[in-house]
Amino acid sequence: MRIALAIVVLAVSAWLAASPSNAASKGCASLRGVLSFHGHALLSFSSSASGGGKDQGGQVSITLHRAVEDLQVILTPKVVGKWGSGRYVFFSGRVRGGHVVVKDDYSTDTMQGALTYNGGSSSKIPVLAGLVFDRIACQYVFQAGFAVDNASYNGDASLRPVTRLGAGATSERYHIPANLHLNGGDGPEAGGTGCDDPIVNDKSCYSFSGGWSTDFETLFKCNSLSPEGSGCASSDTSVGTAIFTWSLTPTYAK
After folding, report:
1. What is the pLDDT of residues 105-161, one digit of tens each?
2. Is residue 27 part of a domain?
3. How many domains does one find in the chain?
4. Which residue from 81, 94, 165, 194 has the highest number of Cβ atoms inside 10 Å of its Cβ?
């Protein structure tokens, strides 16, 4: 899974188009001399879905629990955007380490499976993190995520999912503090309207993939893995609420 800054750049273009002024924000902290940002982040999400019936072989239940704490974030180099006479400044990098816990379960009336992991974020899958600063609005947005290359599966063979999985989050816009110590926290929706251009719409977002993710979303929104007709909730319905917190500090040129 990749949190791609290309997406951020496209979103910032729209953010700029919607912004009313390029006049400098008085008193906003300067990024001059800042080489990088470093710190840690936390992501956590737990939700359950169930449904089915006799015509589908009985009841089906899926629970997702995916969390990472102390995810190490190092963001460099600094890139000054071309839009708005250097209005936007980007810092990008990869995440590493942290403590990832996965406890996903899938059960039917006759079968059961569990997907588990306890360790660091995978170094084999490129997961990016990024900061976008708007020096005119004096706001920033932070993105980060984690990935697991090969979770452990235990259960009936017919339920075995893809064992590679991941998750990521985008924050709301936050005011840039004078000391550039970025400490924040959001309760982003998982999927739903919050993930429809979150940077442009100033909404936090949590997204996830791999394992039983697709089946979980279908079951949550439709109360069935084989939905028919119009019995499903809207495709932009949230499937739960995550926790996303971060603490980042700047490093200056000597």
Report:
1. 999 989 999 999 999 888 888 788 999 999 889 999 999 999 999 999 999 999 999
2. no
3. 1
4. 165
For the chain, how many residues are written?
254
Q: Is residue 113 part of a domain?
A: yes
Q: Cβ(188)–Cβ(31) under 8 Å?
A: no
Section 21-43 average pLDDT: 83
Yes or no: say if 104 and 63 are a contact pair by the CB < 8 Å rule. yes
Nearest to 65 by CA among 16, 116, 123: 116
User: What's the rounded mean pLDDT across residues 92-97?
Assistant: 89
25 within some domain: no
**18, part of any domain:** no
